[in-house]
Specification:
Blueprint (H helix, E strand, L loop, with lengths): L7 H24 L2 H11 L6 H4 L3 H12 L2 H11 L4 H10 L8
Helix pairs in contact: 1-4, 1-6, 4-6
């Protein structure tokens, strides 16, 4: 039986949806660590009351993944917590940035 392949646009949408989901998971992970959340809020300039609205913005989610990638200990902790390879964060970041889904 011949398998149908998804059109490239559908695959790109799936990758973007997965990247957004990973970034939202990362934000939830950061929010669960009060010290990390405080640091993230200070660095991002977002107030706690604006966090939910900001999470709907793709560029904000890109910033979440950048923040995670910039802190190796946090990245490793998140990857372990989520059961993913830390490189998945870089791939998701690239997708949200509009680039290729592969880690360079």
């Amino acid at each position: 039986m011949k398998q149908s392949r998804r059109p490239a646009a559908d695959r790109a949408d799936l990758k973007k949806d997965a990247a957004v989901a990973l970034a939202i998971d990362a934000l939830g992970f950061i929010a669960g660590e009060p010290e990390q959340l405080g640091r993230f809020l200070v660095l991002s300039g977002i107030g706690p009351d604006s966090l939910r609205a900001a999470a709907r913005e793709p560029n904000f989610l890109l910033g979440v993944l950048d923040h995670l990638a910039d802190n190796e200990a946090l990245l490793v902790a998140f990857a372990g917590h989520s059961g993913i390879d830390p490189a998945e964060v870089a791939r998701a970041r690239n997708v949200l940035a509009g680039g290729a889904s592969e880690v360079p």
